[in-house]
């Protein structure tokens, strides 16, 4: 009855221009979005961000990739790094041009990716330093160019093979770009579990950019987040392939107990950083400038990626 009287009142009000204002029912609010993931820890400019910035006082932990127990060292150059013959321009290491490059095994058409590989080319063109001494003939290695040349070759192979990957920093005109590199990898939406791979070239202690480091400071090493079993396992696969493919001096797996590299400690996934020769070592530099070596480094990374994709961590 109440509703009937209200309807009659409304009809009369329409004719006399005095329609009551109906209460407005508010629309339901959309469901709240999940909170954004917290930003990664702030990058400390005073902490080393790759192996080339590690000081002797940092005491990295060195682990043989065959599975030996960790041992501390006195600095980036440890005692069992062999000295090169004085007149051997190859540095006593195998020249990748002396042997045919073995392409990685190509997965069949039924290949299914296990991981999403977030691949980081390290520094950009605007990063200060990160370059070799200038050789008498004018040649010089710029680390950003080396890193991007190697990752370009990796990407080309992964495209052919059908491996899932994400190019973290396609831009060139950037500097260290640390927070953005990590944030991009962390925020990437992927149905596959993610792994982070940062590709670098190394530098040993030297008086200036125009001076070479000690002849004993040479070879390849792979870094992982200290205490991460998956990170160590991942690093071991890459180090094994890199040494087998290039013949470079094996500087094993490395980590830092404190002050770990930002790209290793702030990524929310297993992460490693490969250091593929010392561009301020007079022997490594000559080889690192060649296409053959860069292809060998890329092939080793691709072979390691396929192994991890096939067998897991």
Task: Walk me through this protein's architecture.
Helix 2 crosses helix 7 and helix 4 (229-246) runs antiparallel to helix 7 (291-311). By secondary structure, the protein is an alpha/beta fold. It has a domain at 116-311: Zn-dependent exopeptidases (Aminopeptidase, 3-Layer(aba) Sandwich), CATH 3.40.630. The chain has an 8-stranded mixed sheet with strand order 2-1-7-6-8-5-3-4. The model is unreliable at 19-36 and 66-106 (pLDDT under 50). The protein is globular, with a radius of gyration of 28 Å. It has 7 helices and 8 strands.
- Gyration radius (Cα, Å) is 28 Å
Shape verdict = globular
Question: Uncertain spans, ≥5 residues at pLDDT below 50?
Answer: 19-36, 66-106
Strand order of the largest sheet: 2-1-7-6-8-5-3-4
Mean of the pLDDT scores?
77
Which class of secondary structure composition applies to the elements? Answer: alpha/beta
N-C termini distance: 74 Å
In short:
This protein has 313 residues and is α/β, with parallel strands linked by helices. The protein is built from seven helices and eight strands, in the order αβββαβαββαβαβαα.
């Amino acid at each position: 009855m109440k509703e009937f009287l209200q309807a009659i009142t409304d009809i009369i009000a329409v004719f006399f221009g005095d329609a009551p204002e109906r209460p407005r029912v508010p629309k339901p609010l959309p469901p709240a979005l999940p909170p954004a993931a917290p930003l990664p820890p702030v990058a400390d400019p005073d902490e080393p961000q790759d192996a080339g910035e590690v000081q002797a006082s940092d005491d990295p932990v060195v682990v043989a990739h065959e599975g030996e127990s960790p041992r501390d060292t006195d600095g980036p150059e440890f005692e069992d790094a062999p000295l090169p013959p004085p007149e051997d321009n190859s540095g006593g290491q195998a020249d990748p041009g002396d042997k045919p490059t073995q392409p990685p095994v190509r997965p069949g058409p039924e290949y299914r990716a296990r991981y999403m590989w977030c691949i980081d080319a390290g520094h950009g063109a605007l990063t200060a330093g990160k370059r070799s001494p200038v050789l008498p003939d004018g040649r010089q290695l710029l680390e950003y160019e080396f890193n991007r040349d190697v990752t370009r070759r990796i990407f080309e192979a992964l495209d052919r093979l059908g491996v899932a990957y994400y190019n973290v920093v396609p831009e060139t005109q950037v500097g260290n770009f640390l927070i953005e590199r990590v944030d991009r990898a962390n925020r990437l939406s992927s149905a596959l579990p993610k792994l982070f791979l940062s590709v670098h070239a190394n530098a040993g202690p030297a008086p200036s950019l125009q001076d070479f480091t000690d002849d004993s400071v040479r070879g390849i090493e792979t870094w992982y987040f200290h205490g991460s079993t998956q990170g160590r396992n991942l690093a071991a696969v890459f180090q094994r392939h890199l040494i087998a493919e290039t013949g470079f001096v094996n500087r094993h797996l490395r980590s830092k107990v404190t002050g770990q590299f930002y790209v290793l400690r702030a990524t929310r996934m297993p992460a490693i950083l490969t250091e593929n020769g010392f561009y301020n070592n007079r022997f490594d530099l000559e080889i690192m400038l060649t296409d053959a070596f860069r292809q060998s480094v890329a092939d080793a990374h691709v072979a390691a990626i396929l192994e991890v994709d096939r067998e897991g961590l």
